[in-house]
Structures are given as structure tokens and as C-alpha cells.
Amino acid sequence: MNHQKKKTILVIEDQQAIRTNLLKLLNHVGFHTIGAENGLEGVESAKNHLPDLIVCDIMMPDMDGYDVLQELLQDPETARIPFIFLTAKADKSDIRQGMNLGADDYLTKPFTSDELIDTVLARLAKQEAVTQPYLEDMKQATNVIEEVAGNIQETAAQVSKLSYRDSLTNLPSRKALLHWLPGTFVEALEQQEQVAILCLNIDNFRHINGNLGQRTGDLLLQAVAERLQNAATEENALARIGGDEFCLILVGALQKKDVATLSRNLLNSITQPYSLHEKQVSIQASIGIALYPKDGNSPDQLLTAADQARRSCRKQGGGNYQFYGSMADSLNSPSLLR
Asked: Which of 4, 35, 49, 222 is the most exposed place for a label (fewest CB within 10 A)?
């Protein structure tokens, strides 16, 4: 591999054998590498060397990968560095938590050398595409570089992160969900598990927004997001994928009655009255449910199926949940979702 300028990769991994292999592989294809054997050393190396990309294991003693990412995100200089998590294949919750914290990508162990190199190159290419316009502007305006350089770096980091984060609720965005779901489907098949996608909308939200004002509408969406987070478990992934549309992902040896029970609990939670600007606001919501692989094989297919089920539920009066294409099935069936 021929790089005009060698990119620097920081590898944070507490297992020496794995760390050594990663460094050798990245060196072999032309990268300059730095190794760190624990989280504290990794944070120090990141701040001292400002690498072009960081590859970090999650499970480490004292300071794990989540702590490393949170520490680096607090510093404007290190917050812009693309961050790839390494996680064991079976630890689905690691991937969800890493996505929620703001990781750019992840690799599940074991992975091939091609998977590692492809992932690293993809993240570096995306980072360069984000920052290059700002770098060109800096070259053409050298008389103001010192004044605006700090703002440019901060803005570039924000642009990279905001596309995966909803600014109103701070939940993962639709883009983040679509990035994460394909790997979840592959892993579910390998583990012989099921995936349920729940799409939830507030019934007649436009009327609420119009009558009470956009500011109150925004406060309502934030309050609904908070209740959904409280009602969901740590194993569930939650995202805001539209104006008043939220999506909850369930993975595991699911039973249909359990999905139905969770849907009822979600509806009971978010339909309790809200106190917004000293006003009591009551809402009704509808949930559409699609199952993988029964109702589709791609994220777009399943999100569309869940939305169709939600619309059908809404036409019947709303305030309830409905499974896509399975209205004749008993919600209390103990069989697995297959």
C-alpha cells in the first residue's frame, strides 16, 4: 500500500498477543502504529500523538473502552479522531452501548485481516471527506488560520458525530440504526436468535404541535424519548428515526407474547400525562412490529413493514400495537418468532 503521507493508527488492547498482531498487520500495509496496553496509556497516547484513527478493545481492566471513548470525546482535539471498537462476537450489548456513546464503527472478534483493513480504510476515507473542505479553506485564507483553526476542528468533529445522533433527543439517528442493523441480523442468524423491530408514533402529533406550539412539541418529544429509555432494557437499541417516530430493536430468543407485553408497557408508560410549560398534555400512540427474518431481510424492508403495521393500527383508532402480516396469529402464542 502506498500512502502519500503515512496515517497513524493507535491500537489500545490489553492482550499482548492480539495487540502485537494488530500492530504488525497495520505496519505491513503501510500505516505508522502506536500500541497501548491499557485504557489509561491509550488516552495519554491519543492526546500526545493525535493519531488519525483509534482501534480500541472494550473489555479492559481499570479503564475499559467505553471510558476511553468518553474521556477522548471531552477533548476537542481527540473528539474528532475516528474510533473503532473491538468486541467479542457474543457481546451484542457492547455494540449497542458503543453506538450510543458515539463510536464510529466496530469489529467483532474473531475478524480477518481484510475486515480490519477494510474497516480502517473506510473510516479514514470518511474522515478525510469530512475535513478536506475545511483544510482547503484554511489554505486559501492563511491570514485568519490562527483565529479559526480551533473552530474548524470542532465543527468537523461535530459534523462527523451529528449524522449519527439526533440533536433533539440525543438518541441514535435513523442513519445510525441503518448502519447497525445489518450486523445485528447476521449475528442473530449465527446465534439462532430473532430480531423484532418496533416503530412507534404519537397519534395526531401534528395537531398537538400546531395547537401548543413547536417548543412544547419539542419538549414532548424529549419527554417521550426519556420514558422510552426508562421503559426499555439495556439489551434494546432505541433510536429516533423521524419527526415523532421512534424505533426499538429487540434481539434474542424472543417469544411473541413477550414482544406484545413490552409493547403494552411502552404504551402505558408514554401515555401517562405530561406537564409541559405548566400544561397537562395527554397523548395516544401506536406501535407497528416487524420480525426478522419473517417479515423481511433488509433494514429498509423491515422498517417499512413495521411502519405499515403502525399505519394499519392507526386506521383502526390507534392507541395500540399490531404485528405486520400476522393479525390472525394469537398474541399469546409461546412459540418463537420464526
From this structure: 4
Contact residues for 134 (Cβ-Cβ < 8 A; gap 6+): 152, 155, 156
Same domain, yes or no, for 235 and 307?
Answer: yes
Report the CATH number that the domain containing residue 15 is assigned in CATH: 3.40.50.2300
**pTM: predicted TM-score of the whole model, two decimal places:** 0.54
State yes or no: cis peptide before 110, omega within 30 of 0.
yes
pLDDT tens for 51-64 read 999 999 988 988 99
- Alpha carbon 36 to its chain's center: 26
Angle, vertex CA 335, rays to CA 253 and CA 316, nearest 5: 100
Pairing of strands 194-202, 105-109: unpaired
Residue 168 resides in a domain: no
Name 24's Cβ contacts closer than 8 Å, sequence gap at least 6. Answer: none
25 found inside a domain: yes
> What DSSP designation does 142 have?
G
What pLDDT digit, counting tens, does each position of 163-212 carry?
678 888 888 888 888 888 898 888 888 888 889 999 999 998 888 888 88
Q: What amino acid occupies position 174? A: R
**Closest to 13 (Cα-Cα) out of 160, 116, 159:** 116
